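Q: what sequence does this backbone want?
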């Protein structure tokens, strides 16, 4: 009886990473331009300040007597209407700061 060995398929040789073609050298992080310019960051800071002011308007003084519920103070115009509008204006300022295109630089 003749026995035959099964044929084993071999994979093609894999090139080593050192033999791979060289890619473009990457720029150092310090050479990459900023995504926004100075005016964008200043507008963002103003937006954050407006949001903080809005949240401060929502807060109130501490109640001296916790057993007393002062509805006029809690449901005042400042807390229910003015503060949320100020916060929304702050968020709109932030959206504007993000979407504003930086000024073109001539270099």
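A:
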């Amino acid at each position: 009886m003749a026995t035959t060995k099964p044929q084993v398929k071999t994979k093609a040789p894999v090139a080593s990473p050192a033999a791979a073609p060289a890619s473009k050298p990457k720029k150092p992080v310090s050479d990459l331009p900023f995504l926004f310019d100075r005016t964008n960051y200043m507008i963002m800071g103003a937006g954050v300040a407006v949001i903080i002011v809005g949240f401060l308007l929502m807060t109130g003084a501490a109640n001296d007597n916790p057993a007393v519920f002062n509805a006029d103070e809690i449901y005042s115009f400042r807390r229910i209407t003015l503060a949320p509008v100020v916060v929304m204006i702050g968020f709109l300022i932030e959206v504007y700061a993000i979407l504003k295109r930086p000024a073109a630089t001539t270099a």
